[in-house]
Design brief:
- There is one protein chain.
- The protein is of the alpha+beta class and 215 residues long.
- The chain folds into two domains: 6-80 and 193-209, Glutaredoxin; 87-190, Glutathione S-transferase Yfyf (Class Pi), Chain A, domain 2 (Up-down Bundle).
- 51% of the residues lie in helices and 7% in strands.
- It has nine helices and five strands.
- The protein has helices spanning 14-26, 42-47, 66-76, 87-108, 118-135, 149-164, 166-171, 175-185, 188-193, and strands at 6-9, 30-34, 55-57, 62-63, 208-209.
- A five-stranded mixed β-sheet has the order 4-3-1-2-5.
- Helix 1 (14-26) packs parallel to helix 3, helix 1 (14-26) packs antiparallel against helix 6 and helix 4 (87-108) runs parallel beside helix 6.
- The chain is globular and about 50 Å long.
- The structure holds glutathione.
Length: 215
Amino acid sequence: MTNHPILWTFRRCPYAMRARLAVRSAGVTVELREILLKDKPQAFLEASPSATVPALQLSNRVIDESLDVMVWALKQSDPQRLLDMPEDGWELIVANDGPFKTALDHTKYAIRFPDLDVEAERGKAAAFLMNLNERLDGQAYLCGDIETIADLAIAPFVRQFANTDSNWFVAQPWSDLVAWLNRFTQGSAFAAIMTKYVPWSDGDDPVWFGGTNQG
Ligand SMILES: N[C@@H](CCC(=O)N[C@@H](CS)C(=O)NCC(=O)O)C(=O)O
């Protein structure tokens, strides 16, 4: 048994990505357990009340909302001062997780929503992204020239949206947004959290993640 928290995760899930980004920035060591959403291990189902990733299993409780995992990790240690963010950064995260994510799903999985007008849904997502682009005019990150938790919390979703139609995305008049996203996807933090792991199974040696002491 390990004393370290267990982070149940799925590599391509944007919620899990942002949890891994925060854990990595905090330098907190967790045992990473990659799962397949279509074949969830029993131990995960027993740990996570919502059966969603990410879930951070602590010795006395489970945190199963990605934003809560981020905040937990950064409250342990926040060397980049990602939590040092103005209030409107939190409002951006709320808008990302709510209306933007909904419009993103309606665009990406349009086939599942035959009653919705995909162009109208894309337009709703684009309105949010235009707002981000305006914020990025003259500053490197969403809340200024220093990266904050808002950048880490939102970028995986913008990447997901961009990947639904990358030619269309880069042709839009939001060059500051494209530059911000490129810096994110080409950066060392993103590379570090996108390492591929084979899915966990009971009895495997632990996979350590996030800590400065990887051991
Ligand atoms: N509000 C949750 C949402 C997490 C979520 O929906 N994760 C997806 C994967 S991206 C999931 O686990 N879905 C369950 C499934 O597909 O069975 C959070 O922020 O952690």
